[in-house]
Structure formats: C-alpha cells, structure tokens
Design a protein that fits this description.
The structure is a homodimer of 170-residue chains. Chain A is mainly alpha-helical and 170 residues long. Chain A folds into two domains: 80 residues, Orthogonal Bundle (Arc Repressor Mutant, subunit A); 69 residues. Helix content of chain A is 63%, strand content 5%. Chain A has a three-stranded antiparallel β-sheet with strand order 1-3-2. The N and C termini of chain A lie far apart (56 Å). The interface between A and B is large, with 62 and 62 residues. Chain A binds a DNA duplex (28 and 28 nucleotides) through helix 2 and helix 3.
DNA sequence: ATAGCCATGTAACCAGTTACATGATTTC
DNA sequence: GAAATCATGTAACTGGTTACATGGCTAT
C-alpha cells in the first residue's frame, strides 16, 4: 500500500522524530523550524494527521486539554519518512506575483509601475531582514548547519531579487 | 458586484487584450508569454472562462471546430483588468522543495544529501539555460522590455541559487 | 477510407486558504 | 468568579493537478 508521501506529511513525520506532538504543537514547530521556507497551515496539519494515522504512520495518544491528541510516529512512519528523503527531488516552480504583473508591463502606466516596483522592494527588504536575523540567531545558537544553510538561501534569494529590481526600466 | 480578480483571471484578461482567443489558444499564449514565470494549467483556463463570462468580463463567440469558443474581452473586463493592475501587489511566498528536505538535513545520510544537492544543481542549470535562451530570443526580437526583464529575473534567481548550492556543507 | 495521433475540453481529486465555533486560561 | 482573550480544532471554499473522454486531423 501507500503511495509516496506528500510534502506536508513528510514535514510532519520529520518533526515527530523528536517526540510526540499535538496538532497545535506541530503547527508551532513547523512555523519555527521550517518557517518561511515551507509554509504549512493549521488546517493542513489537522487534515493530514488522521490520514496518516489511518495509514499507520502515526498513533494518537489519550485526549488532552481541549480534545487535543498527541501523535507518536510509528516504525512504519519512520520508514515512510526515510523513503521520502531518498526519493527524487520535486521540481521547483517559482510563481512570483510580481512577474505576472510585470509580464503586462506595457499596460501599466508609469506611475503604477513605479509603485509596483516600490512595493516589491519593500516586501523583499522585509524578508531579507527576517532572514538575516534568523541567520544571526542560528549562528549564535550553533544550531543545525542545515537550518543555517536554508536561511542563507533566503538571503541569497532576496538579495538577488532586490538587485534585479533596480534594473527594471521605469 | 465583483470582488477583486484572482491572478488566473487577470492573466487571461491581459492576454485577451490583443484579440479574441479560444481556451486552447489562451493556454498556448499563457505558456509562451508568461511561461515559466507564472504557470497556468489547461483546466484552470477552462474553469475560469465560463466564470468570467458570467461576470460579464468576456463574451463567447460562435462554437468553432471541436466545440471551441473564442472569447472576447468586454469593456467591463478591461476595467477589471485595469483595477487589478492598480491593486496592491500580493506577497511572494517562495515554497522550495529543496529547502524542506534540507530542513531535515541531519536525518539524511551523506550520500543522500549529496544526491539531493546534485539533483537541485541539475534542475537549476536547466532552468538557467532556458531563461538565457529566452533572454537571447527577446533581445533579438526587440520585444517588450518587461518580458525581457522578467526573463532576466529568472536568470538572477537561478544564478543566486546555484551559487548558494555550492556553499552547502556536505 | 481507416488507423493512429494529437489537440481540445471535462471531471474528479488533492492541496492550500479563509473564516468560524468552541472551550481553556488569564486578568481584573 | 465573570469577561475577555487566545489557543485549538473544524468546516467550507478556492486554486492547482492529474487523469480521462472525445472528436478533428494526418498519413498511409
């Protein structure tokens, strides 16, 4: 049974390797550990958990405070996660709203276009700052080198984008 | 009536500014004009068209070859598109499969990790080549400077990513 | 004229988002 | 101990993907 894991399930199983967690805790962990690199909403988490339980990848414990269940990863869950790690990398499909708008650049009037570029600059400056903070924090904590590398990817991406933004003809 | 346009509809209305097109032609045009910057599937197109017709943004002509309809943009469609152009830029949410996997870097064994990075390098080399071709073609055609800028963004992105990939600890 | 192929359109499914209900917890 | 707040979980909806049916075109 069991086709390959989807990314959401894989992320959750990864997080559960360090111990049982409830849905809410998973949301929090995902936000912190995977953060701006891979978003994951509350609803996705709560939808995946029962599904994964059905497949035997996780096992729910006794209900806690507000009907919350702590899920524990099973041996087959660990195997599924390992298989996902070893499976080929999915393609990266950048889908950038700015580029869609820019594709219709000739329909913009100059003022709109400048505003558009300005908005993008602001957005990416903010993201850049966030990634820089993350890198600083991780450097100090001597944390996982891969988390650090991911944050550095964020920086590289934002810097490249900002540099490119300056070249757009207005 | 009419809440704001979603990105798909906006893209289609933009393309229809140059004349009536059928669903199939829209798919082709979107692929070429918006291409790797903003993907758009056949099914999305065919789902949006009747919806937009219902809102009066487009009008269907007489059925052609295989039940195909050519859609024409209406005045209110043009207004909706202009409003979209002037509306604030959506946030960019990069969602990179490589980063998700890398987030669990410590669970990979070294060999898997090298393979992963290698796959990513290949993928991004390919994308880079495609964007370079696009830029060359657009330069020669003296085409729309914004299409050119978009393709250049693709190059900047891919280059930044490749450079970063080289820094990942293996 | 017919067989195979490919473009077109459809439908069912899965992933992601938004908005809501409920019940602990905190604070005054 | 009552009111407000916030975390948790749920449900409905929108957007994106995959897989399929059908009918026109092409080549032999």
């Amino acid at each position: 049974m069991s086709g390959a894991l989807n990314s959401t399930s894989a992320a959750l199983l990864g997080l559960l390797h360090e111990g049982p967690l409830t849905g809410g805790q998973l949301v929090t962990q995902a936000d912190q550990r995977l953060g701006p690199l891979w978003t994951l909403t509350r609803s996705q988490v709560y939808r995946e958990l029962p599904t994964m339980a059905g497949r035997g990848y996780v096992r729910a414990g006794k209900p806690g405070p507000r009907a919350s269940l702590a899920y524990t990863i099973s041996a087959s869950g660990k195997r599924a996660f390992a298989a996902w790690l070893a499976s080929p990398l999915e393609a990266d499909h950048p889908r950038n709203p700015l580029l869609l708008r820019l594709g219709f650049g000739s329909y913009h009037d100059k003022a709109d276009l400048r505003r558009l570029v300005g908005e993008a600059q602001e957005q990416h400056e903010v993201s850049l700052a966030i990634h820089k903070e993350t890198v600083d924090r991780l450097r100090k904590t001597k944390a996982d080198p891969y988390a650090l590398a991911s944050a550095e990817c964020g920086i590289a991406y934002e810097k490249a984008l900002l540099k490119w933004l300056d070249t757009i003809p207005t």
